[in-house]
Structures are given as structure tokens and as C-alpha cells.
Amino acid sequence: MSKTALRIICLIISILIIGCSWGCSGKKQSDPISATAVLLDTVVTVTIYDSDDETLLSGCMDLVREYEQLFSRTIETSDVSRLNSRATDTVDPRTAELIEQGLYYAGLSSGRFDITIGGISCLWDFSSGSGSVPDPDLISDALPHVDYRTVSVEGTTVTFADPLTRLDLGAIAKGYIADRLKDYLTRSGVESALINLGGNTLCIGGKPGGDAFRIGVQYPFQPSGDLITVLEVSGLSIVSSGSYERYFVENGISYHHILDPSTGYSVRSGLCGVTIICASSVQADALSTICFILGEEEALRLINSLDDVWCILIRDDMSMVYSDGAEAFVAK
Fold it and tell me: Three-class SS of residue 115?
């Protein structure tokens, strides 16, 4: 298992400890059921508080595996890989839906967030622990083919105007999958659960008895499990993105996995972490990356213009800034 996965496991454990150590108004409750697996190149944990039906947990993990087979950039038989190799132009309706959402958020950010960054992201290695800066010529060659406006979706048909454009849905796939897991569980009668896909946390309701879930936000670049703040939420998604999640250092310079579509290199925005709070996990997933790329001023302007969306920004000096109303979620 990679160092990144181990760090995420520690963070998830800290989140679950926070969630379980605060009772529901002092009332006794049944023990929650939980399942954990390494999927989507991360650690997936689903915890259900108001049901003892273990088949719901296995159903969630089966769904994650199914979506991974559709959305992964590295699985050769996935929809995304087959689109990138131009082996097909027809995909599963769920893949088409996710691509459409990715194009929407690319437009919302005027291309600062771009799902056609696949030709760039494939040049970088942030997972093995032995990454290095790619050949600048390879980055320069790939950059002209990063442009979300060259992709269109009609039904389940995906068309590329540029034959060298490549998709990477990694910045929004986990959020989309978390939303689908929520749909599955709520259809099954679950009203209290936590879905955690490698730090993308979605709360179904609150804890039995009415208490909010307490979700920790990782302290950037500190040992996993060290928290910079704790949030109290019910029925919302919390997604964090940051330069501390996957990175390597070369010649004294840190390079992280959030890439700027305009340069092909790691974003330098003055931020090291962004946490988004809203109902939709795919929205939170996309906005966490968008805000990180935009930087403090533009990110706050964007989030404050949206209804029922909040953000917490962590600057490089570890100070925090909140969008309008976000401080209300900080645990007292």
C-alpha cells in the first residue's frame, strides 16, 4: 500500500474517532456497522449508524468497483481509457453524465479547472513515492490539447474536436461516486451514515439522536491525524483538496498533484488547503480544486456568489480564512 493510502487511513481513523466519541445527547445507541476497502487508489470507508444490514456495505463497495471500472484513467478497459485511445465514442450513461458535469465546472471556472488535462496528468507521478518533474518539452507538447471546449456530449456519445485531447475525471469522480452511494443508501432506508472516499466525506443525515457529525480537517504537512479544525455537519458533504495530499520534492521545490491547466505544473496560488461544504459531493469535489487554483480572493468571490456553499481556505502560512457563514460549522 502506498504512503498516501496509509496517510489517508490514519486520517479516516481520526475522523471516525471524532464521530464516534461524541454521543447522541447522552443516549445509548446501537453500534454502527462499517466497511473499508482500498479502491479508487484511495481508502474507501462506509459507516452506517441506523441499520445492521451488512449487505448494504457490500453493495456500496460493489458500486465503487463498478464506477472505478468506468471512470479510471489507468484501467485500459474503462470508458475513460477507451475514449482517450479513441477506441470508442460511446460510453455508459453515467460516464456521459460525469463528463457533462466536468464540462460544466470547467466552464464555471473559465477553464482554470479542466477535465481535458489528461495529457498533462499522465506525465506526472504523485503516487509511487519516487516522482520527478517531467521533461518540459513533453509538457509543452501536451498543453495545446488541454481545452474543455473541444469536447462535446450528446446522449452517450462523446466527441473530441482535437484528436490528441485526453480526459482525466479524477478531480470530480470521487464526489460523483459518493453522491451515488448516498442515493443507494437512502433508497434502502438509511438515514444516518458517513461515506468517506479518501477524505471526500458525505454525511447522510446526522447521528442517531440528532447530533451533527464531527469531521476533522487535516492540518497540512503535519502527521496524519493532526487536525487544523473540526467541523459539525449534518446532511452535507465536506471535501478537502490541498498541496499536502500527494506531492514530492525535487531540488528543494515541492510539486503537488493539483495541476494548472494553463502551465502543466503544480498550482502556486498562496493556498495549501481548501475545504468545501455543501450538499452535493461532486460539487464540493469540483469546487475544492477550482478554489485552490483560483487563490484566496477569487475563490471567496466565487463561493460567496453561490447559494448554500461554504469554504475554508488554508493559506501557505497555515492561517485560515472563511467564506460567508462558514465559521458556523466550526465545532465549539
Answer: coil
The x, y and z cell numbers of residue 282, run together, are 461532486
For the chain, how many structural domains are there in total? Answer: 1
Cell of residue 242, nine digits: 490541498
Residue found under cell 505544473? 265
CB atoms within 10 A of CB 68: 18
Q: Are 118 and 125 in contact (CB under 8 A)?
A: no
Q: Cα(138)–Cα(189) distance, rounded to whole angstroms? A: 51
What is the tens place of the pLDDT at every residue in 313-328? Answer: 999 999 999 999 999 9
How many whole angstroms separate alpha carbon 294 and alpha carbon 291?
5
Residue 215 makes CB contacts below 8 A (sequence gap 6+) with: 15, 18, 19, 201, 203, 230, 231, 232, 233, 238
pLDDT tens-place string over residues 49-98: 999 999 999 999 999 999 999 999 999 999 999 999 999 999 999 999 99
CATH (domain of 12): 3.10.520.10
The one-letter amino acid code at 84 reads N
C-alpha cell read off for 19: 464521530
What is the three-class DSSP state of 130? coil
Residue span of the structural domain in which 231 resides? 1-332
